[in-house]
Write a structure and sequence with these properties.
3 copies of one chain form a homotrimer. By secondary structure, chain A is of the alpha+beta class. The first copy, chain A, has helices spanning 22-32, 57-70, 87-96; strands spanning 2-10, 17-20, 37-43, 48-53, 99-105, 108-109, 116-121, 128-136. Chain A is elongated, with a radius of gyration of 16 Å. The first copy, chain A, starts with a strand and ends with a strand. Chains in contact: A-B, A-C, B-C. At the A-B interface, strand 4, helix 2 and strand 5 of A face strand 3, helix 3 and strand 8 of B.
Chain lengths: 137, 137, 137
Amino acid sequence: MKSVTKYLWFKTKSKRELIRITEEVKKVVAESGVKEGLCLISSMHLTSSIIIQDDEKGLHEDIWEWLEKLTPYKKDYKHHRTGEDNADAHLKNLVTHLQVVLPITQGKLDLGPWQEIFYAEFDGQREKRVVIKIIGE
Amino acid sequence: MKSVTKYLWFKTKSKRELIRITEEVKKVVAESGVKEGLCLISSMHLTSSIIIQDDEKGLHEDIWEWLEKLTPYKKDYKHHRTGEDNADAHLKNLVTHLQVVLPITQGKLDLGPWQEIFYAEFDGQREKRVVIKIIGE
Amino acid sequence: MKSVTKYLWFKTKSKRELIRITEEVKKVVAESGVKEGLCLISSMHLTSSIIIQDDEKGLHEDIWEWLEKLTPYKKDYKHHRTGEDNADAHLKNLVTHLQVVLPITQGKLDLGPWQEIFYAEFDGQREKRVVIKIIGE
């Protein structure tokens, strides 16, 4: 069994961003030499997620609008008694799920035709980390 | 390490359907010969998901009703400027999560007593694909 | 390849609870002897989930309040025709996702700085089970 661990760092300019990382993940898979296996891509923070979506600008706007309505930024979350102001970002992480697991088949990420991997930042302008863990052969 | 990759194809008659695939996944696990491992079952599209739920008709109606209220079908999503009309299906995929990972223990899918695996179609009448990836020994 | 399967049992006093299980999962990882691999932690029931969140009381209150608003307990779900009264708990399981997969790196769970693992019970006072499955080397 082979295994590879790689960390990606992000510090976004905006509070909220969708950053396509498909190419970076593909590179890690290629360098791993793993032909058949699984690739976990997971946020190491509670205010960002890894999601799979279409890379279409209009759809991204729809997602942000829907997500903000579902988990609105507001002052009066109880979490904010700690001095934080990002409870909405925790809820956004919870609803979108922090991670995905992708198959590696014949040495390549086995993605569907429109599937792109995104780092979804819900409380940016801070250093955040994503772990990529590959196991296989 | 053993690995098996299998694709399931779907083309539903309706726009929205829940199709039980537990038996098909169990068959792939049995044929793999893997005794201990992990089984990823993941939608390769952005408008369908794999979910684990109880196979109870009333509950399925509750899920559809709740999901439609949460991510309503409507005309004016920005994604629809591309000619598509399925932005709600993308949101349904996002909220239900596209995939599950199940343990294989003593040669069998290690499911709880009422856990059944479903292919959840949110924008059917098109050809869609699901990947099953097993790794283990 | 090594593999370890372990079950955790829960029977909560309350209908809804968040129980931190990070320490128990770390113990299973340590005992497994696996240095590099993946650790799946998954609810075997449809009315509880495994989630990763911050262990902060105010945030937990925010999560429960938000989740109850999103998937309210009420009498008139169609699932209740079966005699059950927990359709809201099924929806809570669906929206929070039943499971997480975590990397094991250098013999340890590779968690971010504030990531704690929780068993989230949505319909307690019954015996429930969680599976931990580790594969690696």
